[in-house]
Each structure stands twice: as C-alpha cells, then as structure tokens.
Specification:
Helix content: 40-55%
Largest sheet: none
CATH class: Mainly Alpha
Number of helices: 3
CATH topology: Non-ribosomal Peptide Synthetase Peptidyl Carrier Protein, Chain A
CATH superfamily: ACP-like
Number of strands: 0
Number of domains: 1
CATH architecture: Orthogonal Bundle
Radius of gyration: 12 Å
Distance between the termini: 19 Å
Order of helices and strands: HHH
Structural class: mainly alpha
C-alpha cells in the first residue's frame, strides 16, 4: 500500500541525510537517513496528531521505525483500529 503525501512530508522532516531530490523508497533505512531516537519520538507525536491515532505498546519498537513501509503499515493499521 502506498502512503499518502502527508506521511511522506512528515517523515522527510526527520530524515536530514535524505536529500530533497532523493526518492523515499519503501525500504529506505530510516536510521541511515538520519532518524535518531529523539526524532523517532517527535515523529511519533506528529503522526499521532496528523492521523488521530495512538501508538500502542507493541508498535513502540525500533522495528516499527526501520523503514517507511513498516511505519506506514503501522499507521494504517492503527487508523483502521481507531
């Protein structure tokens, strides 16, 4: 499932090593692209606000923030459950 524009815009704010002209691929390594632990916490808050969701305990793992595809799948699942 492809993510929406809002998700990509939010995510890119926390990826300082990903150039504006570089594509954000489903398997882009978010940590290599500059997402650190503080950024992950801030991103989580931004996603919760933007999508009206709450990350539950099982979603709060490093694996959730590994790639855009995994993170978007989590957001989509939480939106469906809400």
């Amino acid at each position: 499932m492809a993510w929406d524009k809002k998700f990509e815009e939010l995510l890119r704010e926390y990826l300082p090593f990903l150039g504006a002209d570089e594509p954000l691929e489903a398997d882009t390594d978010l940590r290599v692209s500059g997402l650190d632990s503080l950024g992950a916490v801030e991103l989580l808050g931004s996603l919760e606000s933007a999508y009206g969701i709450r990350f539950v305990d099982e979603a709060l793992s490093l694996d959730t923030f590994a790639t855009p595809a995994v993170l978007w799948d989590t957001v989509a699942r939480l939106r469906t459950a809400a």
